[in-house]
Design a protein that fits this description.
This protein has 848 residues and is an alpha/beta fold. The structure holds zinc ion.
C-alpha cells in the first residue's frame, strides 16, 4: 500500500539522515519534505530521490493543512535548535519565540492530521533537567521537571500530543551524536570533542568531566523514527531513546584514543549537578536494536573532519573508505562533497598523455578503475608555484582544484571515470569549462616515463604519499661549464612510505649521470677530516681492530678521507670503492688503494671478500638499488664482521627544515625506524645507533650478521624518540612540507629587502644543497657570484640559476653581504673569511 509520509524539518540534522533512509522507499510511497530552510543542492538531491520538497514554515497553518490533512504519517522534526543551554543565555524574547514555534507549530499539525495519521515526535531527555539529585535509569513514567525554554516547550508539546486523541509516538532523545554529510551539529558534546580532536586541539573538562550524559547515535535515531512509523501495533506511546550513559571525561578519553595528540585539561571547580540517566528498557522491548556505537562514531568524525584539512590542497588522491571485503571481492566507497551530473568513461593506452589543461570553475574528479598514471599539476594563479607530480593508482580518486593545470601520463593501459559537476559541452571546449594549458610536452613525458619510481625502494609498497615538491630541478652537482649550457631537469620531490616510514625521491636519475665525475672532495673540509680521524680511533678502540690483520673497505670512498686515518695508524689492508673516475684516481695517487666502480653484484668478483669492517658513509642515501647494496655488503662481510653506516638523519631534516638536503643524489632519507624496517628483510641486525654531527645531523648504525644479537639500549631510546616525534605519522611530513613553502616566501621577501637597499650579495660555498635551495627559491641574478674553496668548481655555473662560481681573489670590494650557502660550515667559513666582509650571514638566517 502506498503511504503518504510527511517529513517536516527534513533538511535538519536528524531530518537529513531520515530522508536518506527513506530514499530507498521513495518510489513506492509519496514522500513530502517540508522545511523553512532552502539548500539548493540538498533540495535537488531530494527531488532526485523522487521526494517532493515544499519550502514552508510550520506556523503557516494553511500550508500545513494542505499537505498533512490526508497524510498517513508525519515526522515532526521542526523546531528551533539554536536554544539557550543555560539560564544566563536565555531571555524573554528568545524564550517566547521558541515556545511559540513549538506550541503553535505542533497545534497546526495536530489540527490538520486525521485520526488515523501517525505522528512521530522527538522530545528530549532534558525534560528531567530539574531533578535535584543524581538519579539513574529514569523510566518513561517519571514526572518531567523542565527548567529552560527548550525543555519546557518540549514537555508542552508532549502534553499537546497526549491530549490530542491522535496516534502519537514520542521519543525522548538523549544528546544526538554522529557524523552527517550535510548538516553538522558541532554544539553537541561528542561532536564538538571529535571536532577538537580532529584539529589536535585541547578539551577542557570542567569539574574534571564527572557529569553524566545520556547520548544516542544519529543514524539509530533516524532508524527508530522509521521503525516507529512502520510498527502498526505501537500507538500512542512514549519512549526514552538513549543508548549510552557516560561521563564527559569518558567521551574525551575516547577522542584521545583516536588522536593521542589531543590534550585534555581538567579543571576542579565544583559540579552543580552530576546529572541523571534514562532507562532504555522500554524501547529495547519493542525489538529495536541500536547498531552504532559511541566509539565508532567518534572515530568516524575525527577521521572525516581531519581529512577535510587535506581538501584545501591543490590536488589530492585518495583511496576508498568503508572497505568491505568478502570472498567475492572488495567494495570501497568514495564520498563526494557535491552531486555529480555527468560521468565520462575514459580509456587510455599505456605511454599516451591527456589533459594539459585546466578548468576555470570546476573541480576535476577522476576515479581510476584500472591502470596507473603520473599526474603533473601546477597552480596557474600563482606564478612561483612549482610543477608537482604524483602517481595515482587504480582504486584512487584524484581531485584537482579549479585553475590548476593538470596532465596525465599513462604508465599502464588505464580506465577512469571523469566525475563532473557542471557543463562539459564539446562546443564549449576551450571557452568555458576546459582551457588548454600545456605543462608537459612529448619529450618531458618520455623523461617522466623513464625515471619515475612507483614503489618504495625499501619495502615495495606502491601507495607512497607526497611530502614536498621542490619543482623541476637540475642535477645539483652537475655544474655547468658555460652560463647558457643546456641541462636536464627532473622533478625533485620527497615521498613518504606509510608502510616502512622511509622517505625517498619520486624519480630515479641514472647514477652514472651523477657519480661518474664528481667534484665534491670530502677532504676539502677540515671538520670532515677531523670527523673521520675521530671515527677511526673510536672504531679501532671499540671494535678491537688490529693494524696488520683487519681488512677494511669503504664504499663511496671519495678521495679516501675515511680510510686515510686508518692508513696513518698503520692499517694496510684497506680498500676504497668509488665510482667517480677523477676521485678514484686522486685517492690512488695519495696511496689510498681504490677500486673505480659502483658497489654492485657484477663488480663483486673484482673485490677481495671476508671483510672485517665495511664503512658506508653518506652513500646509503645515494643508492637507488638498496637491496642489491645490502646483499653485496653482507656477501663481502665475514661472519663476525661489522658494517657501519653513516647517513643523513631524517629527523634533523624534518626538525631543522633542512629541505636543501633533498637533491637527486639522495634517493633515500632515513630514520632509525626505517633503517630497522629495511634491514629486517636480511639476516642481520642493527645492534647500535648513535647521532652524529655531519651534514647538519646524521645517524650512525652498526650492523652484524644474524638475528640473535644483543641490542644496545641506545637503539631503543632513539626509536622511542622518533615515535614521540611522529616519525610514523604522515601529518608530521605534511607539516614539514607546509613549513618549507612558508620558508620560501620568507627568503624571497628578505632577499628583496636587501636588493631594494642596493646591497651587493655574494654567495659562499657551492655544495649541492645550494643548487637545491637557489632553484627552489628562484634566486639567480640577485647574487653576483659565489666564492668556493674547492678549485675544481671554479669558473663553473650553478645549473638552473646560472650563478658563476669563482675563486675568492675575485672579490675586490668589502662593502658586500656574504651569504653562506654551505650553512653547515657557517662557523668555519665565517672564522676564516672575516677579512672579506664584516657582513657574513647564513642563508638559514633569511628563512625566518
Ligand atoms: Zn616502504
Amino acid at each position: 500500500m502506498k503511504k503518504k509520509i510527511i517529513i517536516i524539518g527534513g533538511l535538519g540534522y536528524i531530518g537529513t539522515e531520515l530522508c536518506k533512509i527513506y530514499s530507498g522507499v521513495s518510489w513506492n510511497n509519496k514522500i513530502i519534505v517540508i522545511d523553512n530552510r532552502f539548500f539548493s543542492e540538498r533540495v535537488n538531491q531530494l527531488r532526485n530521490w523522487n521526494m517532493e520538497f515544499v519550502h514552508g514554515d510550520i506556523l503557516d497553518k494553511e500550508l500545513i493543512n494542505k499537505h498533512c490533512k490526508d497524510a498517513d504519517v508525519v515526522h515532526h522534526l521542526a523546531g528551533i535548535t539554536d536554544v539557550p543551554r543555560t539560564k544566563s543565555e536565555s531571555n524573554d524574547v528568545r524564550d517566547n519565540k521558541i515556545k511559540l514555534v513549538a506550541e503553535e507549530g505542533t497545534q497546526n499539525i495536530l489540527d490538520a492530521i486525521s485520526d488515523k495519521c501517525k505522528i512521530v515526535f522527538p522530545s528530549t531527555h532534558v525534560v528531567y533537567e530539574g531533578i535535584e539529585k543524581v538519579k539513574n535509569n529514569i523510566t518513561e513514567e517519571e514526572e518531567v521537571r523542565p527548567k529552560l525554554s527548550y525543555s519546557s516547550s518540549k514537555s508542552l508539546n508532549e502534553k499537546q500530543l497526549k491530549n490530542s486523541g491522535k496516534n502519537y509516538i514520542i521519543l525522548r532523545l538523549g544528546s544526538v551524536y554522529g557524523y552527517s554529510t550535510d548538516t553538522a551539529r558541532i554544539d553537541i558534546m561528542p561532536n564538538l570533542f571529535s571536532k577538537i580532536a580532529s584539529q589536535d586541539g585541547t578539551i577542557k573538562l570542567f569539574a574534571g568531566g564527572k557529569q553524566i550524559k545520556s547520548l544516542v547515535p544519529l543514524i539509530d535515531v533516524a532508524r527508530c523514527f522509521k521503525q516507529m512509523e512502520e510498527s502498526e501495533d505501537i500507538s500512542s506511546e512514549i519512549f526514552n531513546l538513549v543508548k549510552d550513559t557516560v561521563t564527559v571525561k569518558e567521551v574525551a578519553e575516547i577522542c584521545k584514543k583516536y588522536n593521542p595528540k589531543l590534550i585534555l585539561k581538567e579543571t576542579n571547580d565544583e559540579v552543580p549537578n552530576l546529572g541523571f540517566s534514562l532507562s532504555n528498557k522500554k524501547i529495547l522491548n519493542t525489538g529495536f536494536k541500536f547498531l552504532f556505537s559511541l566509539d565508532q562514531s567518534i572515530e568516524e568524525m575525527i577521521s572525516k573532519w581531519s581529512k577535510q584539512n587535506l581538501i584545501k590542497n591543490l590536488e589530492h588522491a585518495r583511496g576508498g573508505d568503508n572497505e568491505y571485503i568478502d570472498s567475492r571481492g572488495k567494495i570501497s566507497n568514495h564520498e563526494l562533497t557535491e552531486p555529480i551530473n555527468l560521468i565520462g568513461l575514459i580509456d587510455s593506452k599505456k605511454g599516451t598523455i591527456r589533459a594539459n589543461h585546466y578548468h576555470p570553475q570546476q573541480e576535476q574528479k577522476c576515479l581510476f578503475t584500472k591502470g596507473q598514471i603520473i599526474e603533473i599539476f601546477q597552480d596557474i594563479l600563482n606564478p612561483n608555484s612549482p610543477k608537482i607530480t604524483q602517481v595515482v593508482n587504480e582504486g584512487q580518486l584524484s581531485i584537482i582544484k579549479p585553475n590548476v593545470s593538470h596532465t596525465m601520463v599513462f604508465t599502464k593501459d588505464t580506465t577512469f571515470l571523469n566525475l563532473v559537476r557542471g557543463e562539459r559541452e564539446h562546443d564549449n571546449y576551450g571557452i568555458t569549462h576546459t582551457i588548454q594549458h600545456v605543462i608537459v610536452d612529448e619529450k618531458e613525458k618520455n623523461l617522466l616515463l623513464s625515471c619515475y619510481k612507483f614503489d618504495c625502494r625499501s619495502c615495495g609498497n606502491i601507495n607512497l604519499k607526497r611530502v614536498v615538491s621542490l619543482g623541476y630541478q637540475p642535477l645539483a652537482n652537475n655544474l655547468l661549464n658555460k652560463k647558457d649550457e643546456k641541462y636536464e631537469a627532473y622533478p625533485l620531490e620527497m615521498n613518504y612510505c606509510p608502510q616502512c616510514h622511509n622517505c625517498q625521491l619520486s624519480v630515479s636519475v641514472d647514477p652514472k649521470k651523477m657519480f661518474s665525475n664528481y667534484l665534491y672532495t670530502s677532504s676539502t673540509s677540515s671538520s670532515f677530516r677531523n670527523h673521520f680521524i675521530d671515527a677511526a680511533k673510536n672504531y679501532i678502540k671499540h671494535l678491537k681492530l688490529k693494524p696488520k690483520k683487519t681488512y677494511i673497505i669503504d664504499i663511496g670512498s671519495n678521495d679516501g678521507v675515511a680510510l686515510k686515518p686508518f692508513k696513518d695508524l698503520g692499517f694496510n689492508k684497506i680498500l676504497g670503492i668509488e665510482p667517480a673516475k677523477n676521485l678514484a684516481k686522486l685517492a690512488n695517487k695519495n696511496k689510498i688503494k681504490t677500486f673505480n666502480g659502483f658497489f654492485e653484484s657484477k663488480n663483486l668478483k673484482k673485490i677481495k671478500r671476508n671483510v672485517d669492517l665495511i664503512l658506508a658513509s653518506n652513500v646509503f642515501a645515494h643508492s637507488d638499488k638498496l637491496k642489491e647494496m645490502a646483499e653485496c655488503m653482507l656477501k663481502m662481510l665475514n661472519k663476525n664482521g661489522t658494517i657501519i653506516i653513516e647517513v643523513q638523519y631524517l629527523l634533523n631534516t624534518l626538525q631543522d627544515l633542512t629541505f636543501d638536503n633533498i637533491y637527486h643524489e639522495h634517493y633515500n632519507y632515513w630514520s632509525l625506524t626505517s633503517l630497522i624496517n629495511f634491514f629486517s628483510q636480511f639476516d642481520c641486525t642493527i645492534f647500535k645507533a648513535e647521532k652524529i654531527n655531519t651534514h647538519g645531523g646524521s645517524i650512525r648504525v652498526y650492523i652484524k650478521k644474524g638475528k640473535k644479537l644483543k641490542i644496545e639500549n641506545n637503539v631503543k631510546t632513539l626509536l622511542k624518540e622518533e615515535e614521540v616525534f611522529g616519525i610514523k605519522e604522515f601529518k608530521t611530513y605534511q607539516d614539514f612540507g607546509e613549513k618549507i613553502n612558508k620558508l620560501k616566501e620568507n627568503v624571497i621577501k628578505n632577499i628583496n629587502i636587501f636588493k631594494k637597499n642596493n646591497k651587493k650579495i655574494i654567495g659562499f660555498g657551492a655544495p649541492a644543497k645550494a643548487t637545491t635551495a637557489l632553484n627552489f627559491f628562484g634566486i639567480s641574478n640577485q647574487i653576483d657570484f659565489i666564492i668556493e674553496d674547492n678549485k675544481l668548481k671554479h669558473n663553473k655555473f650553478i645549473p638552473g640559476v646560472s650563478i658563476p662560481i669563482k675563486d675568492k681573489k675575485n672579490l675586490k670590494e668589502k662593502n658586500v653581504l656574504i651569504l653562506v650557502l654551505a650553512w653547515n660550515f657557517y662557523n668555519e667559513i665565517k672564522k676564516n673569511n672575516l677579512s672579506l666582509s664584516n657582513n657574513i650571514i647564513s642563508i638559514k638566517d633569511l628563512e625566518k
